[in-house]
Amino acid sequence: MSENALRIPFFKSESFRKNYDDDDDDENYLKSSFFEQQADSSFLHSVINMSGVLIGLGQLATPYAIQNGGWASAFLLVGFGVLCAYTSYILAECLKYDLKSKNYFDIGYHAFGKKGRIIASTFIYLDIFMGLVSYTISLNDNLSTVFTGINLDVSWTSLSTTQFLTVIAVAIALPTLWLRDLSKISFLSTMGIILSLMIFITVGCTAVFGGVKANQAIPALQLENIPAVSGLYIFGFASHMVFPDIYKSMKDPSKFTKVSVVSFSLVTFLYTALGFMGAKLFGPAVSSQVTLSMPEHLIFTKFALWATVLTPMTKYAFELLPIASQIEHKLHPSMNSKARMFIRGAVGSLLLIFVLVLALTVPYFERVLSLTGSLVSTGVAIVFPCAFYIKIFWSELSKPILVLNFFFIAVGVFFGVLGTISSTKSLLQDFTN
């Protein structure tokens, strides 16, 4: 498969351009964009791009969510998949309405002005940051299983062996944050997609060839767990900040709706299948990361664990790109390139170190992931797209469509608030115990 087929527009740093400044006037802002798009992606390429950015940490937690929410909660999983496919469609409609809009930030600005831009930026950067914390917690958890039985003399660091290895892994990834042109390591984004798919395949192989009987009981419904479970579900579908860039990169943007339907159908099927496989295989003992429940002696498990360990290391530079580039944009134009690169790399490194410290301090994967989904992802994937759509098309929408979108906003707020409260309580309890 060609590199172009696996190109994710959101990660094309070589085309990253100066976007906006708080002092820019409205017209200049709308003429600007984070990305200089090349409209050369076919339908298949776009499906791969969208599916690739959707599949991630969410799949690790799906078996845990199915087991703890009950098999009936799978309807909520599918419902969120359908709802997020719809919100990807209305984001594209907002782009069609104003051809000057090129990304999620532009849509927020067009709908609500500078306040819309600030709110959208805040939530997206928060989503990136909390996602990186979750990735680093996952890295730490899986490293402990990969190196089971290995004890290093790190008493001088006051860290455990696993924590020390996590620090080493993050340190290995740090140099990538100093690169301005990430096209030199573009293979890492492709590798991240392959590793995510490998996790699904290895769980399937465990079910078929691993000698583990898929006969565990799954409860029908555990209503008290639904708030936290909803955050895990929504997190797996919240990549909406990337969708405008995928839309702009298509040769035929009129096919974007079909791309969304196909991509979300594939990913929803993958999540549902993996969720039921993991829950049936491991039952109540299933971990919040399904890879940690797989029999350690199996070769499939080793592949899955290493895939989960390597995935965060492939994502750090790309995930921090929007933040680092925005910082660089704020620097004085007269500053030379070496100084700009140093400040960009230093700030990115400090952010990643802060992520590392937070991940080692609060190592509760399912709590942080659920909190991210409830607090941030519901806004980015459900509430904001519907609000943007209503504001931009207010005079053109029929009453049923208006009511439908207000209902979706209410759904997003409902699950967001309940999930945030539930996840925060659980996180505080785990942290204090």
Automatic annotation (TrEMBL):
Its main location: membrane. Keywords: Amino-acid transport, Membrane, Transmembrane, Transmembrane helix, Transport. The chain crosses the membrane at residues 47-66, 72-92, 118-137, 157-179, 191-214, 226-247, 259-283, 303-321, 342-365, 371-390, 402-421. GO terms for molecular function: L-amino acid transmembrane transporter activity. It comes from the Eukaryota. It is found in: Membrane. One of its GO terms (cellular component) is vacuolar membrane. Residues 41-421 form the Amino acid transporter transmembrane domain. It is a multi-pass membrane protein. This is Amino acid transporter transmembrane domain-containing protein. It comes from Papaver atlanticum.
